[in-house]
Design brief:
The chain has 643 residues and is of the alpha+beta class. 49% of the residues lie in helices and 11% in strands. Helix 2 packs parallel to helix 5 and helix 6 runs antiparallel to helix 9. The protein is globular, with a radius of gyration of 27 Å.
Length: 643
């Protein structure tokens, strides 16, 4: 596709007065050298975005899936057909996996799978997260107590894995779940039971769709009437003949977005073998049936049992990240190929010529780059952290998950709107992405809940970083300086931490919930600003890794736009605290406008670096310079029906 830049010149021939102007495109001449999508610039941007030297190993196989006919976008399928297709595609993914267990143990590779398949099919993204991460990953994390469990039927997908934790009455408070597992004196195993309707497992994919299924089920281990905490139990749910005795499954109504077979699931005194219990350091049974645990708290035992939820947050972030980049790629291509009336009679200009259009898309692109770099650094922290750093890294993952998925929804909505009415049609590949992102916002920890937890930890933890008082007065600092902009963000984080602590101290005495209610608002603002700061740090690090001057300059401008947008909503506070001057505040909108103007000619190169296969984009009409209806029969034919 040709990449356009724009000049405010008149067309060579004015339309005659009173004559309907020709519906043709102007000559594609520009006043600025085009940035070609196949340039070294695009290649280096993609190198930086996609794990650099590890790019082919991490992303290569999953990217190739999008180029295949099997993963081509299919509009108009019924919910049942889409669910069946998702399971078919999951099996296709499994054929490309060298070792499913290695995949489950590699957070970088597992996240990349979600990042690419989510673009084509949100259902596959959901199923892959459940089967590889929550199911196989949980089995791997507990295999030291199982004496080498045979997992071949799950790695071959003769039985698909699922994960049953939350209940109808217990979602965000899953540690309070009521499903029980008690020792079975007759067999030496356990009896799994759902004691109340509210203890039914809520919305796991447990129907017969996709073939036989097995699950790891979170249940409260009760020994001699004493609650030992929540543990996981490997449980067969169905075989080729249907659900097994005592397994009760009821399909839930269809939900928005790409569906899978969400169900309510209950257990009626289901007998499990002794080896069904997933054991590790947080809990093992000895030969006498006594529990030995290195973790004294039942809550901590629960968190250890469902530890795979942390990696799941990385997967959900990755899935929404890929979806939002695809939405931007579609919208930017549409902006360059959709022509509308220009300011002069007979003139036609692309949507991308308008600042009101390309400015919004460029803000989205700056955010998408920041989201990607933040996700890369967060995955690296998770894979490389020392044991004593685990709590800090888990908090970073939770903060990044909330920020990335919320940003993905916002910019995907913006991208859909910039495609106008064409964006409503599923055939154009963008309308369903926002609904699919909604699933990521809630899955593996509802965003608001995990941010509240992170905010409380940050509130009572160490002081947030503050910049050293600069030797240079603020009046002599430039808003074009990335370090200065980054330092301003650190002040924003520290300011909201201070406000939250003050609100907590001034809250009602003897009322912990009342005090937290006073502090929660500023605490959440602190978390939001901190997420932007971590994204900015990752972005600035990526700028420093660029090898060519052209790439570095472009990334610096995009990072500058991201940082300016981050501080826009905090200029009043920064001015009041003496970190900005009135001239800075007055200059800010003009500076943003200038950065956008400089970036506008590079929009196509920036989205080409998202590396979406041409086969995928070519199948989406508005991404391939086509419109729905372009191939229709002559429009006047229906008018002859009355003859």
């Amino acid at each position: 596709m040709t990449i356009l830049t724009f000049q405010a010149t008149s067309p060579s021939r004015e339309a005659e007065p009173g004559r309907i102007p020709e519906q043709r495109r102007p000559e594609r001449r520009t006043s600025v050298e085009p940035v070609e999508g196949t340039s070294p610039l695009r290649q280096e941007l993609a190198h930086l975005l996609f794990d650099q030297d590890d790019r082919n190993r991490v992303h290569g196989s999953w990217r190739q899936l999008l180029a295949t006919e099997e993963f081509r976008h299919r509009a108009g399928l019924s919910p049942g057909d889409r669910t069946a297709l998702a399971y078919e595609r999951l099996r296709s993914v499994n054929t490309r996996v060298g070792s499913p267990l290695d995949l489950a143990g590699d957070a970088r590779l597992l996240s990349a799978l979600h990042e690419w398949v989510g673009v084509a099919d949100g259902g596959v993204c959901t199923l892959a997260s459940i089967h590889y991460n929550l199911f196989l990953g949980s089995l791997l994390d507990h295999q030291d107590g199982a004496g080498g469990r045979d997992l071949s039927e799950f790695t071959s997908m003769r039985s698909t894995g699922t994960f049953l934790c939350t209940e109808l009455d217990h979602g965000n408070d899953a540690p309070a779940l009521r499903t029980t597992a008690v020792p079975d004196p007759e067999t030496g195993g356990f009896i799994l039971h759902t004691p109340t309707p509210g203890a039914q497992k809520f919305m796991p994919n447990t129907s017969l769709a996709g073939g036989p299924k097995s699950a790891v089920v979170a249940a409260r281990l009760v020994i001699d009437g004493e609650d030992q905490g929540v543990f996981l139990f490997l449980t067969r749910l169905s075989d080729e003949n249907g659900h097994l005795p005592g397994i009760h499954v009821r399909k839930l109504p269809d939900r928005t977005g790409t569906p899978v077979d969400h169900c309510l699931t209950a257990f009626e005194h289901v007998r499990l073998p002794r080896e069904a219990l997933l054991e590790a350091a947080h809990g093992r049974l000895d030969g006498e049936g006594r529990l030995h645990s290195e973790v004294g708290s039942t809550r901590k035992r629960f968190l250890r049992s469902v530890g795979r939820v942390t990696a799941g947050k990385l997967c959900m972030s990755a899935g929404t990240l890929g979806m939002s980049r695809a939405a931007l790629a579609i919208a930017v291509r549409h902006a360059h190929s959709r022509y509308i009336s220009g300011p002069k009679l007979g003139e036609r200009v692309p949507l991308a010529a308008h600042r009101s259009h390309h400015g919004r898309l460029l803000h989205g692109l700056a955010t998408a780059y920041a989201m990607t770099f933040l996700h890369r650094t967060t995955v690296s922290r998770w894979m490389e952290h020392a044991p004593q750093e685990r709590a800090d890294v888990e908090r970073l993952i939770a903060i990044a998950k909330g920020w990335i998925t919320w940003q993905a929804r916002a910019l995907t909505t913006e991208a859909r709107e910039r495609c106008g009415a064409q964006g409503f049609f599923p055939a154009n590949g963008i309308s369903e992405l926002t609904q699919n992102i909604e699933g990521g916002i809630t899955a593996e920890g509802d965003n608001l809940v995990i941010w509240v937890k992170a905010g409380s930890e940050m509130l009572f933890g160490q002081d947030m970083e503050r910049r050293a008082r600069p030797l240079t007065p603020p009046a002599d600092m430039s808003l074009t300086s990335l370090p200065f902009l980054r330092d301003l963000l650190t002040e924003v984080v520290a300011l909201w931490q201070s406000r939250a602590r003050t609100a907590l101290r001034q809250g009602p005495k003897g009322d912990p919930l009342g005090r937290w209610n006073e502090a929660s608002g500023p605490a959440l603002e602190m978390v939001s600003a901190y997420a932007g700061l971590k994204a900015a740090d990752a972005f600035i690090e990526a700028v420093a890794q660029a090898e060519s001057d052209a790439t570095r300059t472009l990334l610096e401008e995009l990072c500058r736009l991201f940082l300016l947008r981050r501080i826009e909503g905090h200029t009043g506070d920064l001015l009041a605290e003496g970190h900005l001057t009135a001239d800075h505040v007055r200059m800010l909108p003009y500076l943003v406008n200038g950065v956008i103007a400089g970036l506008a000619p590079h929009m196509m190169a920036l989205v080409d670096a998202f590396d979406l296969p041409s086969e995928f984009l070519g199948a989406i009409p508005i991404a391939a310079d086509r419109r729905l209806g372009d191939g229709a029969d002559e429009w006047a034919r229906p008018a002859r029906l009355w003859e």
